[in-house]
Amino acid sequence: MNRWLPKTYLTLVYVLLYLPILVLVVFSFNSSRTGYRWGGFSLEWYESLFNNHAMVQAMWNSLWLALAAATVSTIIGALTALALHRYRFRGKRMLRGMLFVVMMSPEIVLAISLLALFLLVGLQLGFVSLLLAHVTFCLPFVVITVMARLSGFDESLPEAARDLGANDFTMTRTVLIPVIMPALMAGWLLGFTLSLDDVVVSTFVSGPSYEILPLRIYSMVRVGLKPEVNALGTLLLVFSLTMLMLSQWILTRSKR
Amino acid sequence: MHRVLQQPFKTAVLVLVWGWLLLLVLTPNLLVVGASVMTRDPGTFLSLPLNLDSYRQLFDPLYLDVFLNSLYMAGVTTIFCLLIGYPFAWALSGLGKQRQTLLIFLLIVPFWTNSLVRTYALKLLLATNGLLNNALMGMGLIDEPLKMLYTEGAVIVGLVYLLLPFMILPLYSVFDDLRQELLMASHDLGAGKLSTFLHVTIPLTLPGVLAGVMLVLLPAMGLFFVADILGGSRNLLVGNVIKNQFLDARDWPFGAAASILLTVAMAVLLFAHRLSQRRLGEEAQA
Amino acid sequence: MRKLALAGLVAATLTGCSSQEEPGVLNLYNWSEYMPQEVLDRFEEETGIQVVYTTYDSNEAMYARLKLLDESGDYDLALPSTYYVNKMRKEGLLEKIDHEKIAGFEKLDPELINLEIDPDNEYSVPYLWGTTGLAYDANDVDGSEVTAWEDLWDEEYEGRVMLTNDMREVFHIGLRVLGYSGNSTDPDEIEEAYEKLTELMPSVRTFNSDAPRMPYLEGETDIGMIWNGEAVMGNEDMPSLEYVYPEEGTIVWLDSFVIPKNAGNPDAAHQFISFVMQPEISALISEDIGYATPNLAARELLSEEVANDRTSYPTPEDLTNAEFQEDVGDDAMQVYTRYWEMLKSGQ
User: Fold this and answer.
1) Of all helices (H) and strands (E), which one includes residue C54?
2) Which of B118, B127, B77 is nearest to A18 (CA)?
3) Residue B6 — very low, low, confident or very high, per pLDDT cuts 50/70/90?
4) Which of A71, A124, A224 sits opposite C6 (nearest CB)?
5) What is the spatial distance between Cα A205 and Cα B246, in angstroms, rounded to a whole number?
6) Is the pTM of this model over 0.90?
7) C17, A54: Cβ pair inside 8 Å?
8) Across A216-243, average pLDDT
9) How confident is the model at residue B4, as a pLDDT?
10) Which residues pair with C251 in a beta bridge?
């Protein structure tokens, strides 16, 4: 097999993957409103974005929600992984099964099932409903990340702690958590991103009392080609890039 | 009873975990199953009597058409992802480790960007006044702009664009395991390149292929916003139908039934995946 | 230590969030592109009430959403079209408007108040009225050939037509083309309209009620339906976009403010209505988004150009054969809905 063929192919695919994004970034600085002529460099779309109260509010809301969802799902997910790894109890398979179902189900199935639940219970759609939904779909990913870390781990440490008289809780706190910390952080970041990006689930379980960014973007996009969306998209891209690089840095640091 | 008190931490953890999953995973799914056999009610969304009408409606030629078309679009998406992703994963696994890490990172970056924004970026490219048309006309390749938006093709492009990484990653992980040892072993045994490919590579990468298919095919049918933004209101996915029934038409039993349809499809694929893994295990032992 | 911080973070995020508890928030649920940002900004400045603006693209979506959120009182104001005001009023989904709390009602056009859909305007206050007519891009289509709804069926326009994503409006043109009333409740007539519309489907490139002018501006469609205000706005960006009052008769509609049942902040809702009804504001709205204001005092403040723009303010000749959208009742709606789904799903 020729040496250059695979490399050319890879390059080609990467170019195609990045092309739409690059177009977006470039045109976010285009002063011309419509059409595809370059009108000159301009930051006006960014300006108009930040002058839009509703947009800024939605950005904050999304951030807070993602923060909360990532945190809660990391806590519950870590505990789940620990339980699955360390404890013996009935119905382990069922637990695993439910997690699997959440991870594999198409988001829309998840979305309507939760909507049905919230309506039945009479929960007002807003921050709480969004939080519950987001934590639920982030959960399996955290569990997997943590379990991967746990499986390659030396059992003698917890045993030693036990011998020294520590109870379960202390042992977990002082031994296990530091060990799985990198996985916790990776899981947290993953949850954060999933929450921030979510469109499908949020469409169903959100209420007007808590406006989030993806839904705002959705209504803007449906109205048509707007340069403000380009600017917003670029900002989100930069944000994701930063988060991703942060996660890589954390993971490589902790490997030592 | 005293066992529970003896291990309070363990109990607390189990209560929390079980509680969350039972409440927010099991119950909702049961509710959907329940909703699918109830009757539509304009006032309260659902009411008795129980019946299978909504399932019958699934097979109404009108909706059956939509579902089959949706399956077709998702299927074509999956095939394209496979055609693009398979050689990609293979090529990727052949590079040095450091390069690989960098390239995986580059692959994931778009994936970490908001999918709505990426879909919108495609609209910029494919619009009649869009970049692609302007470029093609500028180069003199076409006279009239191509009408690419609001077609099935546009939806498929959108789906492939969003879901490609989901095909590549499982494939890559399988190729990663596979690469050197087995291929060399196959060579040592005298098999030619094509033969190796057909009889060794493909069967061994099959679980990866199936994993990729699972991660692409079903979600593809549910990504309603891609159909909305790129397909206009004509090219519908199952996800659009479900959304419509729940949020516009308020026919919850029917929406629930359609959702169950997707879940059943998922179960089928999972089963196929499980089977392939088992067979792989058997062949490896043989 | 780290754990405490974590717990604190969680607590802070969980508590610090719902904006509806603040007294100064108005949840406005409206059509997209149907309220100038300037109006919202000025309202916020004057009253200190923050406006949360959410949009819908069809009466059906709005209605479904309000039903879904039912008791929770999430929206303070909504803007249904005529026949939906009637429907929602009858189903007890609306709060009564306290006319003591709003100013300016007497300035409204007597022809547009106290209609059958809401006698004495107990539940609604008119916002804007408008027409749905034909649009075409003069650069791509010969204007002399575009005079009637029937023209849309011309094979020449295959794959180039745009329709609004509105069930009643699309069936309206199907019915009118056959000589029936757009407010028909006769299932046979509706079925005939459906058959006629299926013939049109191959020509339809897309449906759009988010911003009907955009497919024309973006070059995706050349001819089709459009709302008059959208035509006005579109014409500013693309002068070749023309608006035509079709021969068979244009569609006329009226959108009104309503306060959904259990609204969280009805006082703010009343304040907003009063604010909009100031002649200066109503005039601003009409000039900005191109629809006609029912406020007679505002009409006098309009610039010459806008007041004489036939697209925004049709002459009586333009309105010959025009039909006002009326409520057809739940039974007929079900018939329409069924055929609409068949129409949209058919490939």
Assistant:
1) strand C50-56
2) B118
3) low
4) A71
5) 12
6) no
7) no
8) 84
9) 52
10) C132, C323
Strands C251-260 and C94-95: antiparallel
pLDDT band at B5 (very low <50, low <70, confident <90, very high): low
Please name the member of A57, A67, A224 whose beta carbon is closest to the beta carbon of C13: A67
Q: What is the DSSP string of chain A?
A: --SHHHHHHHHHHHHHHHHHHHHHHHHHTB---SSSS---B--HHHHHHHH-HHHHHHHHHHHHHHHHHHHHHHHHHHHHHHHHHH---TTHHHHHHHHHHHHHS-HHHHHHHHHHHHHHHTPPSSHHHHHHHHHHHHHHHHHHHHHHHHHTS-THHHHHHHHTT--HHHHIIIIIHHHHHHHHHHHHHHHHHHHHH--HHHHHH--TTS--HHHHHHHHHHH---HHHHHHHHHHHHHHHHHHHHHHHHHHHHT-
Question: To probe the interface with B, which of A109, A226, A234, A245 has the most B CB atoms within 10 Å?
Answer: A109
Contact (CB<8Å) B124/A27 = yes
Q: Which residue has the tokens 């006002």?
A: C324
Residues on chain A touching C6 (C-beta within 8 angstroms)? 71, 75
Amino acid identity for residue B26 in this structure: L
**C211/A127 Cβ within 8 A:** no
Q: Which of A34, A64, A67 sits opposite C237 (nearest CB)?
A: A34
Is there a contact between A237 and B113 (Cβ–Cβ < 8 Å)?
Answer: yes
Hey, of A223, A228, A229, which one would you mutate to test binding to chain C, going by the most C CBs within 10 A of its CB? A223
- Out of A61, A119, A208, whose CB is closest to C74? A208
Percent of chain C at pLDDT > 70 equals 93
Chain C nearest-CA distance from B241, in A, is 9
Is residue A75 less than 8 Å (CB to CB) from chain C? Answer: yes
Maximum CA extent, chain B: 83
Q: Tell me if chain C has a CB within 8 Å of the CB of A240.
A: no
> Which of A88-92, A160-164, C60-64 is modeled with the greatest confidence?
C60-64
* Long-range pairs of B5-8 with CB within 8 A, sequence gap ≥ 24: B7/A168, B8/A169
CB–CB contact B249 C165 (8 Å): no
Which of B106, B114, B122 faces A14 most closely, judged by CB atoms?
Answer: B106
Chain C closest CA to B264's CA: distance in Å? Answer: 23
Buried b (16+ CB within 10 A) or exposed e, B52-83: ebbbebbeeeebeebbebbbebbbbbbebbbe
Are A112 and B87 an interchain contact pair (Cβ–Cβ within 8 Å)?
no
B234 touches chain A (CB under 8 A): no
Give residue A134's identity as a one-letter amino acid code.
H
Task: Determine the residue of chain B that is closest to A102 in CA distance.
Answer: B25
Location of structure tokens 């309202």: C43
Residue C19: pLDDT over 50: no
pLDDT given for residue C23 in this prediction: 59
Binary contact (A117, B31; C-beta < 8 A): yes
Q: State the number of CA atoms in the 13 A half-sphere of C271 facing the CB.
A: 19
User: C236 is written with which tokens?
Assistant: 């500013």
- Mind listing the pLDDT tens digit for each residue in C60-88? 889 988 888 877 778 999 999 989 999 99
Peptide bond into C239 cis (omega under 30): no
CA-CA distance, C10 to A69, in Å (whole number)?
A: 9
Tell me if C220 and B236 make a contact (CB, 8 A cut-off). Answer: no
CB C273 within 8 A of CB C257: yes
